[in-house]
From TrEMBL:
3-hydroxyacyl-CoA dehydrogenase C-terminal domain ranges (all copies): 194-275, 308-405
Lineage: Eukaryota, Metazoa, Ecdysozoa, Arthropoda, Crustacea
Protein name: 3-hydroxyacyl-CoA dehydrogenase
PANTHER family registered for this protein in UniProt: HYDROXYACYL-COENZYME A DEHYDROGENASE, MITOCHONDRIAL (PTHR43561:SF3), PTHR43561
Family per record: Belongs to the 3-hydroxyacyl-CoA dehydrogenase family.
Species annotation: Petrolisthes manimaculis
Residue span(s) of domain 3-hydroxyacyl-CoA dehydrogenase NAD binding: 7-192
Subcellular location: Mitochondrion matrix
Pathway it works in: Lipid metabolism
Length: 407
């Protein structure tokens, strides 16, 4: 049985650290938020107070007494400090949300490891670094894991709970229970680059940038294609801007350094230079096709003759990547789907979407692309997908794919 987490220390008072501290305080936990800069932690405390008031107004409406109690209770449970070592003395859980630098994180956890009680669980909120590499700095790998929240923390429902091989079952259950007590939907993931969401999201958005880079389609048309063709709430180019091109570049550069042979992690020159250049096309042909498409009541997008055009060129590698995550045991199909629905706002998760598209269709596309473009890793057919199709599991249309479906 997992031990209940009551006292939480959050290291870092930036957007993520402050968001984690706020939600923890709102949900009844005793929280200490730490930052080495006293001015920064004071500003964060004020932001949290203002945010809690907005939450109360939305949550309680005209119930003034209820709102006041919620605000005062939440704020009373939040404390601050500039001394990380002293702040972990009574912590059940320490969540680190500082700069994405492996050496800095390791130095911090090595110091905290000597000061924290033996029962204290350590967790990093890193979105791109190896949890195992960070945990190496401590003597408590059985009580170490990843707790990857999404920004803004008070709004986003997803929490990726990452376990390394040494993470004990009790530690994992405690982290999951705490996440659920925070009002989050938790998904389990092994320690792999980007966990679930970013492991699928970053290569997907990078491939969209490569489409743009090659001049295969415009930014507007890529986004329109994925919103109207795949039902995504936001196109990949728009999403890249929202996430931050510098953030995407930082993540992909780190992955490429650690895994130089993985083609999906290859950096993009366009992302490096932040330059858009679209090739010319024949005006007469374009006008004719545009007129015909509009006459059919369709939204017309322009694309060169590239494998899968726009939608399938982004769609199929994304689905194949999700199946590889499942194949490698990184996460369950349910957690992969939940991660993409709650973390990215997708209507369907990639595993259930694969069933909907048809597993045999994915096999046919993958095999055709591998034949025409040998050596392209993202087109390769996952053995798990081939096995399912060989067993007659085609997805929804056959009644069973990765999931089973009733008539």
């Amino acid at each position: 049985m997992s031990a209940a987490i009551k006292n939480v220390t959050v290291i870092g008072s930036g957007l993520m650290g402050a968001g984690i501290a706020q939600v923890a305080a709102q949900t009844g936990h005793i929280v200490t938020m730490v930052d080495i800069d006293e001015m920064a932690v004071n500003k964060a405390e004020k932001r949290i107070g203002d945010s809690i008031k907005r939450v109360a107004k939305k949550k309680f409406g005209d119930d003034g007494d209820g709102a006041a109690e919620f605000i005062s209770g939440s704020i009373s449970r939040l404390g601050t400090s500039t001394d990380a070592v002293a702040a972990v003395g009574s912590a059940d859980l320490v969540v680190e949300a500082i700069v994405e630098n492996l050496n800095v994180k390791k130095k911090l956890f090595a110091e905290l490891d000597k000061a924290a009680p033996s029962h204290t669980i350590f967790a990093s909120n890193t979105s791109s670094l190896s949890i195992t590499a960070i945990a190496d700095a401590t003597t408590r790998k059985d009580r170490f894991g990843g707790l990857h929240f999404f920004n803004p923390v008070p709004v986003m429902k997803l929490l990726e709970v990452v376990r390394i091989p040494e993470t004990s079952q009790e530690t994992y259950e405690s982290m999951c229970d705490w996440g659920k007590a925070m009002g989050k939907v938790t998904v389990e993931c092994k320690d792999t680059p980007g966990f679930i969401v970013n492991r699928l999201l970053i290569p997907y958005t990078l491939e969209a940038i490569r489409l743009l880079e090659r001049g295969d389609a415009s930014a507007r048309d890529i986004d329109t294609a994925m919103k109207l063709g795949a039902g995504y709430p936001m196109g990949p180019i728009e999403l890249s801007d929202y996430v931050g091109l510098d953030t995407s570049k930082f993540i992909i550069d780190g992955w490429h350094k650690s895994f130089p042979d993985v083609e999906l992690f290859k950096p993009s020159p366009m992302l490096e230079k932040l330059v858009v250049k679209i090739a010319e096309t024949t005006e007469e042909t374009l006008a004719t096709m545009n007129d015909w498409g509009k006459a059919m009541g369709k939204k017309v997008v322009l694309c060169k003759d590239s494998p899968g055009f726009i939608t399938n060129r982004l769609f199929v590698p994304y689905l194949l990547s999700s199946i590889r995550l499942l194949e490698r045991g990184i996460a369950t199909k349910e957690d992969i789907d939940k991660a993409c629905k709650y973390g990215l706002g997708h209507v369907m998760g990639p595993i259930e979407l694969s069933d909907f598209v048809g597993l045999d269709t994915l096999v046919n596309v993958s095999e055709a692309w591998m034949k025409d473009y040998p050596g392209v890793q993202e087109f390769e057919l996952p053995p798990l997908l081939k096995k399912a199709v060989d067993e007659g599991k085609f997805g929804r249309k056959s009644g069973e794919g990765f999931y089973k479906y009733s008539e």
